[in-house]
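[step 3/7] fold_predict: job queued, chain A
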Amino acid sequence: MGSGTVLETEFEALSGVTSGIQEQLDEKANTDAVYTKTEVDTSQGA
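[step 4/7] structure written:
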């Protein structure tokens, strides 16, 4: 492990991680598949 200080808060943020963090980041939604509220409302005729 590298050198440096890790705060307790940072460790707590990792407590719910159940798989590799990099894998989760790699599998996040592509920006092409994410829509704003305005885009959804417009497409639904709202």
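[step 5/7] annotate
Helices lie at 8-13, 21-26, 37-43.
The chain is about 40% helix and 0% strand.
exit 0
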